[in-house]
Design brief:
By secondary structure, the chain is mainly α. The chain folds into 2 domains: 1-51, no CATH class; 54-273, Orthogonal Bundle (MetI-like fold). The protein is built from 14 helices and no strands. α4 runs antiparallel to α10 and α7 packs antiparallel against α10 (195-210).
């Protein structure tokens, strides 16, 4: 009897969490495929006369608001993609060095890198802005990408360190005995085995970068570099934007990370669990 009651409570909790999470997303999708007049109808829980006009306007960039969203969509893809590539490249080299190589102060350096994750992001916002301003990197792709890399590199290094540490040392030793160098061993032997961890790190970095708001809000004050997340929030204060168009922009902003998470879920799980057991 207690087991049956526990099961009912568990499923009730799951249903409530799903409703809490999915109802706002459903409402945004419903509103985005309606006209403004239909969306304002009371008690409209199902889309009436669905249309894709809002999405076509955004994707074609027709109109002032649509042009801003179209431009910011390009910005966020460039910034997140570049940050992911640079972060994964640097994290791979750093994680391999910390996991496999022996040098003085290795543990001190490694734990110092991990310790940076304990600092709240907002504590570094003003210093980073002053540094970016000093080097003329405000309102540039390079400045935003560098800030993203500095923020995500410790986590990426930790994830890949765990994965490299879980690989058998005999593989690397065999390559070194055969005369291969460190980089050759890393490229030809370890990277193919660490592919799930690398994919996991790339996905985590991309998703975290996609959801950034505070740093790009401060470091990019014009449309030339502002990502989609910042532009959608700023439209509500600067323009009278139809709710249907704004919801369509919101759906476009979440559809990319949602598809990535669903498509590569197994890589994320396997990568995060790497190193937990040997």
């Amino acid at each position: 009897m207690n087991r049956r009651r526990t099961g009912k409570l568990r499923w009730t909790g799951v249903v409530l969490i799903l409703l809490w999470s999915l109802v706002p997303i459903y409402w945004a999708i419903k509103t985005s495929i309606q006209t403004e007049a239909d969306a304002r109808q009371p008690d409209s829980y199902l889309p009436t006369r669905p249309t894709l006009d809002n999405y076509s306007k955004l994707l074609s960039g027709s109109g002032d608001v649509a042009d801003q969203i179209h431009r910011s969509s390009v910005n966020i893809v460039i910034e997140c993609g570049a940050a992911t590539i640079v972060t994964v490249l640097l994290a791979t080299l750093a994680a391999y060095a910390f996991a496999r190589m022996r040098f003085r102060g290795r543990n001190i350096f490694f734990y110092a890198v991990l310790a940076t994750m304990a600092f709240p992001a907002y504590t570094t916002l003003i210093p980073l802005y002053r540094i970016m301003s000093e080097f003329g990197l405000v309102n540039t792709y390079s400045g935003i990408v560098l800030v993203y890399v500095s923020g995500f590199l410790p986590l990426a290094t930790w994830v890949l360190h765990n994965y490299f540490a879980s690989l058998p040392a005999s593989i690397e030793e065999a390559g070194l005995v055969d005369g291969a160098g460190r980089l050759q061993v890393l490229w030809h032997l370890l990277l193919p085995l660490a592919r799930p961890g690398i994919i996991s790190t790339a996905l985590i970095t991309f998703l975290f970068a996609w959801g950034q708001f505070l740093f790009p809000l401060v470091l990019s004050s014009d449309l030339s570099t502002q990502p989609l997340t910042v532009v959608i929030a700023s439209l509500q204060g600067r323009h009278v934007v139809p709710s249907t168009l704004l919801n369509a922009a919101g759906v476009l902003a979440i559809i990319v990370p949602a598809c990535l998470a669903l498509a590569f879920n197994r890589y994320i799980v396997s990568g995060l669990l790497a190193g937990s057991t040997k």
